Amino acid sequence: MRNIREVLSVFLLAFSTSAFAEEAGSFGQSIAAFSELVDGFFNDYTGWFVALIFKSVPIGEANFPLIVGWLLLAALIFTIYFGFIQFRRAGMAIDIVKGKYTDPNSKDEGEVSHFQALTTALSGTVGLGNIAGVGAALAIGGPGATFWMILCGLLGMASKFCECTLGVKYRTILPSGVVSGGPMYYLSQGLSEKGLGGLGRALAIGFALMCILGALGGGNMFQANQAHAMLTYAFDVPSEYGIITGVVLAALVFSVIVGGMPSIASVTEKVVPWMAALYVGMAVIVIVANISQVGPAFAAIFEGAFTGAGVVGGFVGALIQGLKRATFSNEAGVGSAAIAHSAVKTKEPITEGLVSLLEPFIDTVVICTMTALVITIAGLNVAPYDGSGLTGVTLTAASFTETAGVFKYLLALAVVMFAFSTMISWSYYGLKAWTYLFGEGKSKELVFKLMFCVFVVIGATIQFGAVIDFSDAAIFAMSIFNIIGLYFLMPVVKKELQSFIARVKSGEIKTYEKHSK
């Protein structure tokens, strides 16, 4: 069995090469050896945890992950409990983002605007899952998976509403004005108010540990790894030069996260709209160029949703793949977004809960559906999802390039932007979990930020499977701790909602004509 000393010795060997460009062969071998040892280490010691979190039960010819059912059931319960809030109050949510309910002269505590909080949280969810994940879902579940993906995204809006309202209500504001919030705080403080302080602290600590592991893995190493892989695919960058990609990305990430949440929000409010516009713009071009196939594409989506003809597991296979992709993409119920939304400038927790319900709609209903529609249209022309061997990002890339070869390079740019924005958001999530466990302070924060950037370099350099499986499991383990707390605390959210709506109707809470971000 491999030990830590062996892993570290190969790590030092891999990074001791000063002239790696001239000795790419030996450097590549060192990296491959390091990758193998790291992967083996995680496979040996964490395989049981991954198997536990992603435990599946057979349904027909397909396997249904219980964690997906856990997230879907919560979304359904919150949707019913809050009276389909995502449909009834969507207009109010948009008005809040536009600044209609923000007093321009107010001095509300917090670090960022509603719009900045939304884009920061979106940058953590709108990422490679929208590109690679949807490709994988359709490769297995066919076009019909799209229908169930949209449905799950709509239900997930209620989960986001619940957790982000609590994130603001139970946040901690330091004398410096810096905000710390998220599930760690509402689990411990909220359950303590109900006489369940021991349970709340246990759930908060479990959540924080999983959040740190998830931030370093899925929110960091995987993003850097896939960014370099896309550069290799599009521009023939040698795979062994991943260390260069990693160092550049790490430098960019550090330059942003060193400034804290205001710096992160300032970047995401600019990057997220542009990267979303680039990706959706490409999708729109594909759709317009193949306008005659749009009708048949939607027909294939609706027919496949209820028949699942020609896909693994039939109807159940299409259902499972759609639900899995939606829950894995928008992270509704995971609790991560509540950390970003906690930093908003407001004294009304419910306003940020309403803003947050827009996330699953943008992430899943709009962007994931755009990807699925492009793949389906390409499938009607050249059938890339009928067993040709393409899946994930390669299926998505092939579907885009069916319309225009230049999309290969634009997609590479989108992947890098998605990866970068996801990393800076998850660095903030991991940091807040870190300071919850080890205490606030600039020196403690700097330790985590430097560690995070080191993992960026490692992620871009090595190839791994078990490491990512473990970090994915950690991210979804967060939902177990989070949702248990949400069930106890959802009456608190309902009370906040009823109070806010009553004060809006009475005129106590005013609207303002001058909108601002």
TrEMBL record:
It comes from the Bacteria. Its main location: membrane. Keywords: Cell inner membrane, Cell membrane, Membrane, Signal, Symport, Transmembrane, Transmembrane helix, Transport. Residues 1-21 form the signal peptide. The keyword Acyltransferase does not apply. It is found in: Cell inner membrane; Cell membrane. It is a multi-pass membrane protein. It holds the Pfam family Na_Ala_symp. The chain crosses the membrane at residues 64-84, 202-221, 241-259, 271-291, 297-320, 361-383, 409-429, 450-468, 474-493. InterPro entries: Na/Ala_symport (IPR001463). The keyword Transferase does not apply. NCBIfam families: agcS (TIGR00835). Belongs to the alanine or glycine:cation symporter (AGCS) (TC 2.A.25) family. This is Alanine/glycine:cation symporter family protein. It comes from Psychromonas arctica.
